[in-house]
Each structure stands twice: as structure tokens, then as C-alpha cells.
Design brief:
Distance between the termini: 49 Å
Order of helices and strands: HHHHHHHHHHEEHH
Structural class: mainly alpha
CATH topology: MetI-like fold
Number of domains: 1
Oligomer: single chain
Largest sheet: 2 strands, antiparallel
CATH architecture: Orthogonal Bundle
Number of strands: 2
CATH class: Mainly Alpha
Radius of gyration: 24 Å
Shape: globular
Number of helices: 12
Helix content: over 70%
CATH superfamily: MetI-like
């Protein structure tokens, strides 16, 4: 055995535990999940019956699932825009010559360290108790009632909480990209008389194209997979009417899948929803990354 073969064997042996763990925890359960989505499995018995596409037909007739899908799309669009815009503006602030910028960086990042359940509970108290008290004291009608019990404002509360938590993390990606831009380029543009925002738009943003691809991918997948904050903040509520059916106004896809499987004990239908969820997330992620990569080439 040559030294090159020995090195490859050694590398393979070091990788083996990680590969086995990945297979056991990720790949095998995923394949089992696809299989169970074509059966009547309910999680209580090993004996299952093959039912084909019945579960998939059923879930696409489920108005609660379709509503959750649309709500998730709406939340994702608003959340991706809000998180990235705020994170970019913050990154400009903390990379400027402002005093205490390192303290600001730490302060903006800290919310990302708080767990989703704890974060949702804190903000639920704020939206349900503190803001209504302030609204009643100042006679502000829009704040006198809890924003998470109103179907027209509950989406705003979810976007606000997730943006507050996640913008600091995305900020670090933008900060790293900004610091990687040669100062001579920005200084040359300034000497040529280019205004600040023109330098940002025409020089800085194109040079940060790769960081936007990463940040958009992370915020897109994070928005689609939102679960813990959704549970702690609204638990899917409030209820409302959609297509003449009672639905949960803020129930995102992950929570809908959880409720189907564990609340209503429809394991096979929940698994079928999870498979659809996975495929949708893959499609949207591939489209987003491909589009951003093409823009990187243009820039």
C-alpha cells in the first residue's frame, strides 16, 4: 500500500464515525419517512398498510394545510426582506467610524443567542401586556389590544420578533463582507466625488454579492422552518375563516405538520406533509441560490 493510499484510508477512518452518525440520524429516518408517507402508519404499531398516494391527495384537500402554506410564503417574503434590510443597515453602522461600534456589534448579536421558546414567551408578554397598557395609557387605539390576537396584525408580530432575533446574525455576514472590500476602492470613489449612498449602491453592494447569496439562503430556509417562535408566540392563533373553513391565522407549515402528527395523531399524513415541505424548500432554495449566483456574475 502506497503512502497516498494509506493517507486516504486514514482520512476515511476519521470520517467514518461522522458518516455513520449522519446516516443513522438523517438519511435513514428521511428514507423511512418517505416510505411511511405512502402507508397508513399512525406511530403505534409496526404493522402498516400501503395506501399509495392517498395521504398526498388528502393533504391537498386539507384547507388548513393549504392556508398554512400560503401563510408561510407570506411570512417568508416579509421576513427575508425585513431581516436583510435591517441587517445591512446595521452592518453599515457598525463598520463606520462611530464610537463603541464593537459594543453595538455584540448588542445586536445577543438576541440570536436566546432560544426561540424563551424569545417567543418574552415577546408574547410584551405584545399581550406591556404594549396594550402603554396604548391604553396614551389613548392609542392600535395598541390598546394585543397584536397577537388580531388576525390582521399577527403576521407583523412574528416578522418583528424574528427580525429582532436574526438580524444580528446576518449582520455578521455583511460585516465580514464589508471588511473584505479594499479601502482604497471606496477612498478612490470618495475622492472622485461620489456621494455616500452612490458608493454603497454602485461599489459596495456589487462587491458584497456573495454575502447576499448566503444571507438570503439562510433567511429563506430559516423563515420556512420557523417553529419554536411560532409555538411560543402565537401557537398558530388566532382562529379565522379562510375559504369558508376555520383555520389558524398564523400557523406556519412546520407547526401544521407537528399538529397533524402529534396533536391529531395522523402520523402518515404528517409525514406526507413533511415530504412536500422538504421538496418545496429545496425548490425555493435552488431557485434563490441560482438566481443570486447569476447576479453575482453580472455584477
Amino acid at each position: 500500500m502506497t503512502s497516498k493510499q494509506k493517507r486516504k484510508l486514514t482520512e476515511g477512518l476519521f470520517l467514518l464515525p461522522t458518516i455513520l452518525a449522519f446516516l443513522v440520524v438523517q438519511i435513514i429516518p428521511f428514507l423511512y419517512g418517505i416510505y411511511y408517507s405512502f402507508t397508513d402508519w399512525q406511530g403505534t404499531s409496526a404493522a402498516v398498510t400501503w395506501v399509495g398516494l392517498k395521504n398526498y391527495v388528502t393533504i391537498f384537500q386539507d384547507k388548513a394545510f393549504l392556508h398554512s402554506f400560503l401563510v408561510t410564503l407570506e411570512f417568508t417574503i416579509f421576513n427575508v426582506i425585513a431581516v436583510n434590510v435591517l441587517a445591512f443597515l446595521i452592518s453599515l453602522l457598525v463598520t463606520s467610524e462611530i464610537r463603541g461600534r464593537n459594543i453595538y456589534r455584540a448588542g445586536f448579536f445577543i438576541p440570536n443567542l436566546i432560544g426561540g421558546i424563551v424569545l417567543g414567551s418574552i415577546w408574547q408578554f410584551i405584545f399581550s401586556n406591556i404594549l396594550p397598557s402603554v396604548g391604553q395609557a396614551l389613548n392609542i387605539a392600535g395598541l390598546s389590544k394585543s397584536l397577537i390576537t388580531n388576525a390582521s396584525t399577527v403576521m407583523f408580530t412574528m416578522v418583528t420578533v424574528n427580525t429582532w432575533q436574526y438580524a444580528g446574525y446576518i449582520m455578521l455576514i455583511f460585516v465580514a463582507a464589508i471588511q473584505g472590500i479594499p479601502k482604497s476602492v471606496m477612498e478612490a470613489a470618495e475622492v472622485d466625488g461620489a456621494p455616500y449612498w452612490r458608493r454603497i449602491r454602485s461599489i459596495q453592494i456589487p462587491l458584497m454579492a456573495n454575502s447576499f447569496t448566503i444571507s438570503l439562503f439562510l433567511t429563506l430556509t430559516n423563515s420556512f422552518k420557523m417553529f419554536d417562535v411560532n409555538v411560543a408566540l402565537t401557537n398558530g392563533g388566532p382562529t379565522g375563516l379562510w375559504n369558508k373553513s376555520i383555520v389558524n391565522s398564523s400557523e406556519l407549515l412546520a407547526l401544521n405538520i407537528y399538529n397533524t402528527a402529534f396533536k391529531f395523531n395522523k402520523m402518515s399524513q404528517g409525514q406526507a406533509k413533511a415530504v412536500i415541505f422538504f421538496l418545496v424548500l429545496v425548490v425555493f432554495s435552488v431557485i434563490q441560490v441560482s438566481w443570486n449566483k447569476s447576479k453575482e456574475v453580472e455584477m
